[in-house]
Amino acid sequence: MNLSLLSRGNRKRLARAFYILHFTFFILHSSFAQTLSPQAKVSLITVAPGDELYSSFGHTALWISDPMYGVDRVYNYGTFASYADNFYVKFLKGTLPYYVSVYPMPNMIYGSQQENRTLKEQILNLSDAQKQRLFQLLETNALPENREYSYRFYYDNCATRPRDMLVKACGDSLRFANVVDSTKSYRDWMNEYIANQAWARMGMNLGIGYPADIKATPWQAMYLPDNVYTEVDHARLITANGQETPLVANSLMLFRAVTAEETNAFLTYLLSPDFFFAVLLVVVFLITRRQQRAKKAGFWLDRLLFGFTGFWGWFLVFLWFGTDHGVTTWNPALLFMMPLHVPLIFWVTRRGNPQTIRTYFLLTMVCLVLFFLYAFFQDYLYGFTFFLLTLLFRAFYQYRTASTQTAASTYARS
């Protein structure tokens, strides 16, 4: 054998030839893998809610595996790029693009273990044709030109997208049983998942409007991964020979979360908005009593409280007209956080006209009571109740003070 074959130049040529052959084989294999084998498996993957706000509602994905061709692809519709230009502005306005990402199942299992979130698999009883159709739909959707979509929390998200893909692949043969509770609103479902995040629950309930209070049908309630899991678990498929068969062939637990230690309930309450605003109410009550004894109006406190409220009211107006979330319109919380407090609270208190002050705070009380009644009947008095009572107390104090001054002025003129 000629040892010159092992020279550095020949070794480089052999390595280049091997790389080209390997790359060509990979391309051919990927192209060939577009047709699944009869051993292919399609599963719906459900991830339990996590501790962070972004993970509070759980997650849904579709997994296609085919051991014959080495296919192991999880399709995740909950991906967004935190490094995108103007990320926070787009996120706030509801225009941040989400996209479908694809990765192997070990990555998903590792992520669930790191976040201590239970991972469940439902193996779907699809025909070979339905598996192939679903695979093609997902692969097409995962292309760079197709993968982005406009995320809508209630209407178009990481749970509804896999469900919709499944419906497209199965067509009329897929029948959901509609077993999910249809008496709850979008807001009711949401609040079940953020009960332990008091500040976030308060903010989200104040930020969303009337669309969130519409009763969600079982189909609409599938904006939550757990509801998708439940409906899929009870769904049926009509086979080619007209027979009904369960959509789910088998359910597996891929990872079970370790039970976390319970947090101190008293400490949790001390850090909650309920406690914070209860303390504020007491402080405002004591200041008001002092002003009452001194026979002073103390408008500085009203400018602080109602000015703060008005500022956030303008933020709610921005969420209504300046964003594309779809659920921040027609917000009753504007009766509570009335944006016109800025600038009216400054104009009314500086003008010092008792009749104007009386009218202003009377209208404020009416708005506060109306919102309280709406939130009470829709069952979302979370976190802000004591702050609402604080505003109502101050509005009543100023209304009564102005009424006394108006009556005294009328008596003097008579």
Q: What does it look like?
A:
The protein is α+β, with helices and mostly antiparallel strands. Helices cover 51% and strands 14% of the residues. The chain has 14 helices and 10 strands. A 7-stranded antiparallel beta sheet has the order 6-4-3-2-1-5-10, sandwiched between helices. The protein is elongated. The N and C termini lie far apart (128 Å). The model is unreliable at 1-33 (pLDDT under 50).
Summary keywords:
414 residues, alpha+beta, endopeptidase fold (from Nostoc punctiforme), 3-stranded antiparallel β-sheet, 10 strands, 51% helix
Protein topology:
Elements: H1 8-32, E1 41-47, E2 59-66, E3 71-80, H2 87-93, E4 97-103, H3 105-115, E5 119-124, H4 128-141, E6 148-150, H5 160-170, E7 174-175, H6 186-193, H7 198-207, H8 225-234, E8 236-238, E9 244-246, E10 248-255, H9 265-270, H10 273-293, H11 299-321, H12 341-351, H13 354-377, H14 385-413
Antiparallel strand pairs: 1-2, 1-5, 2-3, 3-4, 4-6, 5-10, 7-8, 8-9
Précis, in short:
Keywords: Membrane, Transmembrane, Transmembrane helix. The chain is an alpha+beta fold. 51% of the residues lie in helices and 14% in strands.
Mean pLDDT: 88
What does the overall shape look like? elongated
Tell me roughly what share of residues is in helical segments: 40-55%
For this structure, the CATH topology of the largest domain is endopeptidase fold (from Nostoc punctiforme)
What is the chain-wise order of helices and strands? HEEEHEHEHEHEHHHEEEHHHHHH
Regarding quaternary structure, what we see is: single chain
In the predicted model, the low-confidence regions spanning at least 5 consecutive residues are: 1-33
Strand content range:
5-15%
* Measured distance between first and last alpha carbons: 128 Å
For the biggest sheet, the summary is:
7 strands, antiparallel
Q: Give the count of helical stretches.
A: 14
Structural class: alpha+beta
Report the CATH C-level class of the largest domain. Alpha Beta
- Estimate nothing, just give the exact number of structural domains: 2
Strand order of the largest sheet: 6-4-3-2-1-5-10
Organism: Larkinella punicea
InterPro entries: 5TMH_Lnb (IPR057436), Lnb_N (IPR025178)
Keywords: Membrane, Transmembrane, Transmembrane helix
Protein name: DUF4105 domain-containing protein
